[in-house]
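Dear colleagues,

As part of the handover before I leave the project, I'm documenting each prediction I ran so the next person doesn't have to rerun anything. This entry is a single chain, and its sequence is reproduced below.
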Amino acid sequence: MGVTANTTGKLTSQHGLFYDYLLTNFSEEYAKKYYEANEEAIKFVKDIIEKEKIECDFKEQDAYVYTREESELQKIKEEVDTMGELGIDVEFTDETELPFEILRSYKI
């Protein structure tokens, strides 16, 4: 279930509100390494697809974490701030391609 539910897979460096947790409970270095490891894994898969000329539906897209609850906005703000401090390209937005209204989200 969860994020990928009935799809064949998803590669991402964005796993919910997780970077603030890593920074708070471990360290900045740990959180950066986690991000870098995820990015390297995505690049590894992409390189294999290109090298082996694998015909598949691989495509790069933005990843979003969003809320429809006012009470969750501060958590998203903290996550965006943390990710920015870690050097991750992240932005706050209230516009997505979702078929319903959101209060705020971030994307990487």
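Helices lie at 19-25, 28-51, 73-85. The radius of gyration is 15 Å.

All the best with the project,
I.
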